[in-house]
Design a protein that fits this description.
Strand order of the largest sheet: 1-3-2-4-5-6-7
Order of helices and strands: EEHEHEHEHHHHHEHEHHEEHHHHHHH
Oligomer: single chain
Number of strands: 9
Shape: elongated
Length: 432
């Protein structure tokens, strides 16, 4: 067990101290106990390192905003233990950390297993919507629906104790850390980079996984140069829990046979193959180049001024309003309205919303008030959704509209309350 400062992770070690280290990474909403059934066998050959995500399993609630941030915390934890090279197996969110390790820190990882993983987990909108639900209703709706996502129906019915354990595991997670993890997954997308994973990789998936199923697994195998696929029958998303023996056997075989010994422990450097020796050609006297063959120097144009804010604006616009809304607006643009869509993306979103002087919560408060004052109810609906995405609770939105009633007028606020009430119901009602 460990004491956990903010830049590291809560962890547990099992197995012989002198054995090579094998890391097991958890799924969102779980704890290191999801690997309990694998540890006895794995610990015979490896020093098994398990960790909890922030705010999970009683770990300190230091939210992490990205998969890269969590990867950095994991490496800081390992550095503190003197662990330089290791094998890594990760389930779902843990798999995202595994891909980040293989792409950004290939010198650290000897072998990789990706379980119920994907190069992109759903869509950003799906995870931001989940964050809105947790912010409004707490984790109970997510906890109650977790068995449906994690297990097959037959397993959940036959194993009520494990099903209840899963519900309680999610229910006791810190909500702020869960929301931050959702935001991290919303931003995670390494589809274009998978060819850079240069470590032996096992891709393991449950045949009945409806979250990140065989289709996502085949995408990983097709894109990672040295990858093999294993489909576990009769298992859903949390396959290490549902089919522990099969997963254990696959992990033992993979890490026993595909451990890349590329790290030189005596120097702390990666072994880099020497460049091939080129034949030495006979020397010939240098000949002066004819004047006509000397090209004039190419003068590179000097770029001045600020960069075009359009791309930054499009990114902010998507994060605040959602991909579906922005895609619909851009798809409807034609020769008449296209310039206007470009204008608001560049200036409203790239110049104003992206300024550092106010955070997005504050900008949402200002925007809601301005839209109430102007009576722009259709735009108000969009921005109530945006305010929820930006972290305002329904109670805070109510306070903004009450304040607007005083300064913008009761009739305007009355219409605004009707719009906001409907949008909040739609956005915060859990989908079972």
């Amino acid at each position: 067990m460990s004491e956990t400062p903010p830049n590291t992770l809560q962890y547990r070690l099992d197995g012989p101290e002198e054995a090579p280290v094998l890391i097991l990474g958890p799924s969102l909403g779980t704890t290191w106990h999801m690997w309990d059934r694998q540890v006895p066998e794995l610990a015979k050959q490896w020093r098994v390192f398990r960790f909890d995500l922030p705010g999970h399993g009683g770990a300190p609630a230091y939210p992490a905003g990205s998969v890269g941030d969590l990867t950095a915390r994991l490496l800081a934890t390992l550095d503190g233990l003197g662990v330089q090279r290791f094998g890594y197996a990760g389930c779902a969110f843990g798999g995202a950390i595994g891909m980040e390790l293989a792409l950004r820190h290939p010198e650290r990882i000897a072998s990789l297993a990706l379980i119920a993983a994907s190069p992109r987990f759903g869509t950003p909108d799906e995870f931001r919507q989940r964050g809105v639900i947790v912010r409004t209703n707490g984790l109970d709706p997510i906890a109650r629906s977790s068995p449906d996502r994690w297990f097959t129906g037959g397993f959940a019915a036959a194993q009520p104790a494990i099903t209840e354990w899963a519900v309680q595991m999610v229910r006791t997670t810190d909500p702020g850390c869960y929301i931050a993890a959702c935001e991290a997954l919303a931003a995670f997308d390494v589809r274009a980079e998978l060819a850079g994973v240069a470590v032996p990789t096992l891709v393991l998936v449950g045949s009945d996984d409806q979250v990140t199923g065989p289709a996502e697994a085949r995408t990983l195998v097709a894109s990672i140069p040295d990858a093999r696929l294993a489909v576990v029958p009769g298992a859903s998303h949390l396959v290490p829990v549902e089919q522990p023996a099969a997963v254990t056997d696959l992990l033992v075989r993979h890490f026993s046979t595909a451990w890349q010994p590329a790290f030189d422990s005596s120097t702390g450097q990666m072994a880099i193959p020497a460049a091939p020796v080129k034949p030495v050609l006979p020397a010939t006297p240098p000949q002066p180049a004819p004047i006509a063959e000397i090209a004039p120097a190419v003068v590179e144009p000097q770029v001045t001024g600020r960069p075009d804010p359009y791309d930054a604006g499009l990114k902010v616009r998507r994060e605040v309003l959602g991909d579906a809304h922005v895609d619909r607006a851009l798809a409807q643009a034609d020769e008449f309205s296209g310039d206007f869509q470009e204008f608001i993306t560049r200036y409203a979103w790239g110049e104003i919303w992206d300024r550092p002087g106010l955070d997005r919560r504050s900008r949402s408060c200002v925007t809601l008030t301005a839209l109430v004052a102007g009576g722009h109810l259709e735009e108000l609906a969009f921005h109530v959704r945006a305010a929820l995405r930006n972290g305002l609770t329904p109670g805070e939105i109510k306070e903004v509209l009450l304040q607007a009633a005083v300064y913008c007028g009761v009739p305007a606020a009355n219409s605004a309350f009707k719009v906001a009430q409907q949008i909040i119901r739609e956005e915060t009602t859990p989908t079972e």
